[in-house]
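Q: Is it fine to ask for two folds in a single conversation?
A: Yes, each is treated on its own. Send the first.
Q: Here.
A: Result:
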Amino acid sequence: MKRILIPLATFLLGSVFIASFYLGILTWAQGWDYASSQFARDRWYVIPIILGFGVQAALYSILRFRLFIPVASTGYAGSMMGASGGTSATAMVACCIHHVTDVLPILGLSAAASFLTRYQRPFMLTGLAMNLIGIGVMLFVLYRERQKLQPVLLETK
């Protein structure tokens, strides 16, 4: 039972975390009405990024806790999840970071904010691509570890 509940819980927690980060930044910068309108406008980018991050979190929990296969090494799965999570968060916030400079102009982020705003869609597509690469890396690690088990399973029969 825990083999199903742990990945499901980490999927939900990862998805809620990245969605909360996105909505939290938008709400802090401009308020809930703006955050909900931005989410509705960019939903075709944001929802796949949120779900992709959740899938990565679930796969990482499978690797980390050795739920289905006794994995000797998780390889680059952890660092890939961190990199794609950071890229995804940056991509989702890129659409509205210019509003943060309205709130906190003393930080001197206006140049970075205008850059991120200008390239919002490419950043979101990059975030989605990083999610897919991260999922692919983790699936490859699981596949490789399963292949290592195949000779052992055949010898015991």
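Q: Second one now.
A: Result:
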Amino acid sequence: MPASQSRSIASASARLAASLGGAPHILGPGEHPVRPDQIDPAAKAVCRRLRDNGFSALIVGGAVRDMLLGRNPKDFDIVTSARPPEVKLLFQHARIIGRRFRLVLLRYQGLEVEVSTFRARPARQGRSSLLIRRDNMYGSPREDAFRRDFTVNALGFDPDSLSVVDYVGGLDDLARRNIRTISPPEVSFAEDPVRMLRAVRFKARLGFDLDPALVTALRRMAGDLRHAVRHRLAEETQRFLSCGHAVRVFGEFDRNGLLKPLLALQEHRRYFTRGALKDPLPLLGPYLEELDRWTSREGEPIPPTVALLGLLASLARSELVAYLRGDRLPVPLKRAVMADLRLEAPVMLGEWGLLKGQIVPALQILAAARKLLWEHRRGVEAFSASRPGIREAWTLIILLRNILELEDAYVERGLAAMPDLPVLPILDHHRPRKRTTGNSTGLHDGARKRRKRRRRRRGRRSTPDQE
């Protein structure tokens, strides 16, 4: 980064530190449009239990923003003065997750709630230390608000007093329909480059405008996406694909220079076509349109693994699409493609960012989709509903209908069959599956071997021959 930009970031950090003062702006009941029935009873109950045990608690983030805009929140995040181990002790179905950002994920009355602790902005000096790798310094409600990404996402809501708490001017930005970072955009994007993607997503989803200073910093720092963890980028990409506005979101990414760094095609160029490396958006267009049609037509979220597989198939080599489609390939090429898929598909999925728990289901989905298309080419319409990944395979086929050149009648039959098909338990980063093959205890290999060694040592000491 140029020295002038480093000095600008340092001075911006100093201005932010000086701004952490003053009282919050509070709107009481009747001064805002949030209705009590918009708040899920489980979120209220979680806050109440935390308060009954001597901790403070607020609903924060997108839920507060959406309620103020008259939307129904899809989830509720809670922030509290309790530390993660203290939260876990209060709730039965709770587990601590995360490493960079430790929080408690709990199931309560059928709702999945994320509960985090008030955090402070860690002290940093210099450009190299701005990137947040650990975010577990605890602080006050004010400090927690100032360490968040955008002003419209930093509002708090007290479900007991029905009050909105604003430390950062988020209410004004919400009224102006403006997306603005809390800290100077250069600092905010240097701390977490993924915030650039989130700013564009909020613009497309909410119909808001981006702050001019944010746009300038975004276009200048787009290349910093390479500093973000690849798996986190893939996780965010899955959200963009299933938000219902994928065409607009990816168009904004392309206009602001974020699309190529996000896809990281050059880093894994052997997996993609030349056209994708040069200009990926035209290749993605038909697929993104189908994604948005699916979301508006079906009214249900697309499995994240399926959405990411479709994106990769849209950009991947023509041999992969031909293999899925069941085209007759020359025998040497067919052998090469099959060997390539068997050897490189898991590597490709892992390198590009699929979470570990998604790779095996992804391969099952690809195998089921190939089988369905092969049966269709042979005129066989029956299929086994017990085949792993059958429902997700149909979803993938429907999303790739234009790329695979499928007729409407076949796609309609797939849509009609889907309600009766089983759902593949695709794993996500919150629910790692314990190993069960040859290991009923759920221990990983190293722990199992250590337990065996301990048992052997105990056994040798207690045998009569050794006595």
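Q: Anything structural to flag on that second result?
A: Two points. Confidence is low (pLDDT under 50) at residues 5-21, 332-337, 427-445, 458-467. The first strand starts at residue 25 and ends at 27.
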